Amino acid sequence: MQDEDVVVTSPLSRDFVHDGKYVKITIYRGTRSDDDWMLEVVDADGHSYVFDEMYGTDQDALDAAVSQLLNS
Q: Environment class of residue 38 by beta-carbon count within 10 Å: exposed (0-12), middle (13-18) or buried (19+)?
């Protein structure tokens, strides 16, 4: 496996339920500490939504996911 294939998953990744809707929030980045964080949300039907925006911190990514889910 090449280095660029390795990802670090944030400990802030989690399952999330709001208004009876379940999603899995996954926050990840490359192995370099200066890599930005990516955000993926997978719904109960297995549909994956990868956000276009990159985040400076994993907390920023989690905040964006929760905000989007609470306002949808």
A: buried
